[in-house]
Structure formats: structure tokens, C-alpha cells
Amino acid sequence: MSASAQLRDITVAVVREKEKPFTIEQARIRGPKDDEVLVRVIATGLCHTDLIVRDQYYPVPLPAVLGHEGAGVVEAVGPAVQDLKVGDHVVLTYGACGHCNPCSGGHGAYCKDFYGLNFGGGELDGSTAIQDPQGQPLHDHFFAQSSFATYALSRENNAIKVPEDAPIELLGPLGCGIQTGAGAVINSLKVGPGSSFASYGAGAVGLSAVMAAHVAGATTIIAIDVVPSRLALAKELGATHTLNSREVDVVEAVREITGGGAAFALESTGRPEVLEQGIQALAGLGVIGVVGAPKLGTKAAFDVNDLLLGGRSIRGIVEGDSVPKVFIPQLVQLYQQGRFPFDKLVKFYPLEEINQAAEDSTKGITLKPILKIG
Q: Which has the closest alpha carbon to 166: 349, 346, 329?
């Protein structure tokens, strides 16, 4: 039996029905083939995207093993793996083919096969790597990893080697949510020294953006949310101003603080009315990035002249325009230097408490749950 055909017993969290709780189950996973690596998962972040897929905002086929912010140790490698080796510490990130025009240009988050590789529920040919004890397939390859499991398969190009002296149990969220917020500021919007930045939403993504704006040298950093504790944390992480949108006219307040409007903004709530506010509160030639993911088909309304007359822009952003092999190690280094303290966002839960973690995340009690697995 080839290594890729050998099956390993694993524990997984499975979504079997729309809007139903995760169930902890036993399953089996095949070994790595070609350029794949098998990773013993130490911990994995729980992201808003996991929850909206559980609830079928995006039609990923069920039953499925989700999880897409995994971090762990390489256990085995396929025959085509070139740079990774057994024992390496890795953060798992999104899947990209690596050879289409966007990928070749350094824009893997816009890979022509992005949806199939990350939301297809299996490999592009429809096969899966995980099966239940009865031999029935479980949809997997979620974000090219399915890391709500004790072991996960990824490709070498989305398993990012990180220093062994960094706390591997903490690093998983760098693979998606945190790189999305930080990358949107640094890579996409290119916020610069002395500039103004407004974060619409102070969840894990929005606060990652606040930290990145601080690192980038923005001198006016506004965090907007409805939860006082999040706004207080935003001040700790570099925000110069905070606004509770239930208490003030946000557009008027942002314009007043910035002297006419924010040069840069990020919308991470997925609420169309918030996006409209963000557009109205931009300075001339300002740009707002959109990372919040609502249900497919959600429409937003705005006055076209708000864009036209001020030369303003709206920018859709996936995964912070990150080149993960470059950007994730940079974020790790910033964390180790004390300049990007994303550990202040997290709370740890055992895998068996995944539904509690999901509930706490939905209620805003926990900004970034991390499930400890290994």
C-alpha cells in the first residue's frame, strides 16, 4: 500500500446539516501524495468564515470538515515536496494553484481556481482525503486544509514554515483572519506614515487592521464598533480615536476627527449600511477596502457621486492580498518584537468545546477563538 493510500485515525469536528452544531467524530485521513504535506495540528483558529459556511451562506457541500487557520508540525511529506521536511512548524493558509496569471503575478488570493480550491469540498476532481469509519467520504480540503482535525493535509505552497521559537499554538489565525486585516492595510490600501485610517468593525479582522495601521505609521486611527470592550482594546492596540456607532453620527464624527474624511478605511462587518457610511466618510481620493463577507447576493446602495466627484474608490480584498510565504513570517517577526500583539485578541478552547467557541464568537464575547488540538 502506498503512503498516500494508508489511512490514519483522526478526530474531527464535522458540520452535517445547515445551521446545526459541530459534532466531534472519529474519521480516517489518507497520507500525503505529490506536493502534499500531512500536518499534526496543534491548534487552529475559528473564523467568521467557518461559521457562515456552517450556516451555508456559501454553498460548501455537507457533511464537511471545516477549519482554515491551522498551525502544527509536519508529520509526513509527499514525494514532490521540495522545501518542507518532517518536524517543521507550519501555519496553514488559503489554497491557490500557483501557476495561473494571478498566482504568477503574486496575487494568489485571486487565483482562477480560488473558489474550487477553498470552498469546493474536496480536490478539484471531486475526491476527498477524509472518510468516516464506515468508509463514507467527508467533504474536506476547506481552504486547502480542513484543520478542525487532529491531522490535516495541505499542499506545500499553503503550508508556511515559521520559526520554531514562536508559539505555534498561537499562530494559526495568521493564516486567514489576521493576515486579512493586517494585509488589507499594508498590502492592499498601502496605508502610510502620517495618514488617517478608519476601521469599521473592531473584531479580530478590524483590530488586526488597527495594529497594522499603527505599525505602518498612520497618525489618526479610528476604530468604530458597538461593543465598548472592543473599543477599549482598540485604544490599547494603537487606535487614536474610538466611536460607538450607536451613540454618534459616524460619518460626521469621522469627518470631524480627520478634518474632512479618512484617507483610508476598511469595512469588516459585512453590513451594507456600514459600507455606505464608510464611503460617505472618505476624504477626496480616499479608498475603502471591503473584507466583510455577507450572504451571497447581498446588495449595497450608495450615491455614485460620492465616488465620482471626490475620486473615491472601493476595493474588494481577499486574504489581505497576502503572499503568505512572505507576509506570515513578517507578522510573526512583528509579534516577536512586541509590535503586533495579536495575542490580546485570542482565547483558547479545547476542540470538544468548538460549539461554545462559536457561540462566544457570535456574541462578541471572544474576538478570536483558538481551538487547542494537539
A: 329
Look at residues 323, 18, 23, 360 and name the one whose alpha carbon lies nearest to residue 204.
360
- Reduced to 3 states, what is the DSSP secondary structure of residue 198? strand
End-to-end CA distance of the chain: 27
CA dihedral 362, 366, 367, 369 (to 10 degrees): -90
**Mean pLDDT of all residues belonging to the chain:** 96
d(CA 237, CA 341) in angstroms, rounded, equals: 8
In sequence order, which residues have a C-beta less than 8 Å from that of residue 319 and are 6 or more positions away? 93, 94, 109, 176, 179, 180, 183
Q: What are phi and psi of 285, to 5 degrees?
A: 65, 10
SS3 letters across 11-70: EEEEECCCCCCCEEEEEEEECCCCCEEEEEEEEEECCHHHHHHHCCCCCCCCCEECCCCE
What's the pLDDT tens digit per position in 136-170? 999 999 999 999 999 999 999 999 999 999 999 99
pLDDT over 90 (residue 2)? no
Residue 278 makes CB contacts below 8 A (sequence gap 6+) with: 198, 200, 265, 267, 288
Residue 291, phi then psi, degrees to nearest 5: -125, -15
Instruction: Give the model confidence (pLDDT) of 306-321 as tens digits.
Output: 899 999 999 999 999 9
In one letter, which amino acid is 260?
G
